[in-house]
Amino acid sequence: MSLELNAVTVTLGRTDARTTILDGLDVTFEPGRMTALVGPSGSGKSTLLAVAGALLRPTSGQVLLDGENLAGLSDDRRAKARRERIGYMFQSGNLLSGLTAIDQLLTAVHISGARPRAHRSRAEEALNRVGLGHRLRHRPEQLSGGERQRVALARALFLSPKLLLIDEPTAAVDRSQAGDLAALLAERAHQDNCVMVVATHDRTVAEAADRVVDMAALTADAAPSAPAGR
Ligand SMILES: Nc1ncnc2c1ncn2[C@@H]1O[C@H](COP(=O)(O)OP(=O)(O)O)[C@@H](O)[C@H]1O
Ligand SMILES: [Mg+2]
């Protein structure tokens, strides 16, 4: 189970104002490891996550998840892959206001069509694993920024995705909580054995990662042997 991007190019905009965001990018991400994707704002980190997560079809190139090319699937099959194999966690967590932590997780089950009651104890366990066993019935407005991100992480992991894509997880989190959250991400990648890619410009997150991939080293004209970062 790995995620492999082969010669991925993304060109956006109208024909008279085309911009190439990703240009022939090759990279492989392994399971059981947290990879931090770093690079300045505008370098294409979020675009790479959108392509990897089958949210955006590349203009050309392959996105191989466990050997299957997500870029070549029909829209329906891509939606199915997103539901069944991919988890997402974004900057602000995107929790639903008014719902308890446990219901944030169970909502994912509603969407996938399974009966929520059978999953209640699993949702509790998932929240325990992110250190929120004492916050099961708290609503987003009753949680700190770091706690909200833990709920978002538990929700993203709840259906056991093979691939977990995370964008700027510490952007809305206190500095004191960012280190704890980063360590938790690494722990979940190791224990759940998923492919985890975290776009970040937070040094704390990069330090907790098993591997750091710099967007600058992924561009088509970067020398393959160049050290990461330059
Ligand atoms: N829909 C779009 N149309 C044209 N350009 C876009 C679009 N979305 C993003 N971009 C541009 O793509 C580049 C990369 O954006 P992004 O992937 O968000 O970078 P990052 O996450 O590293 O900050 C930026 O220059 C941005 O302005
Ligand atoms: Mg971004």
Characterise this structure.
By secondary structure, this protein is an alpha/beta fold. It has one domain: 3-Layer(aba) Sandwich (Rossmann fold). The chain contains seven helices and nine strands; from the N terminus they run βββαββαβαααβαβαβ. The protein has helices spanning 45-52, 75-85, 101-112, 120-129, 145-157, 175-192, 203-208; strands spanning 3-12, 19-29, 33-38, 60-65, 68-69, 86-89, 163-167, 195-199, 211-214. It has a five-stranded parallel beta sheet, sandwiched between helices. α3 (101-112) runs parallel beside α5 (145-157). The longest helix has 18 residues, at 175-192. Mean pLDDT is 90; it is low at 225-230. Magnesium ion binds next to α1. The site of adenosine-5'-diphosphate has 13 residues, from β2 and α1.
In round numbers, the mean pLDDT is 90
String of helices and strands: EEEHEEHEHHHEHEHE
Task: List the ligand species.
Answer: adenosine-5'-diphosphate, magnesium ion
- Main sheet: which strands, in order across? 6-7-8-3-9
Classification by helices and strands: alpha/beta
CATH H-tier superfamily: P-loop containing nucleotide triphosphate hydrolases
- First-last Cα distance: 29 Å
Strand content: 15-25%
Q: Can you count the helices?
A: 7
Helix content: 25-40%
Kindly state the number of beta strands: 9
Unreliable stretches, pLDDT < 50, 5 or more residues? 225-230
Can you tell me the overall shape? globular
Based on the coordinates given, report the CATH architecture: 3-Layer(aba) Sandwich
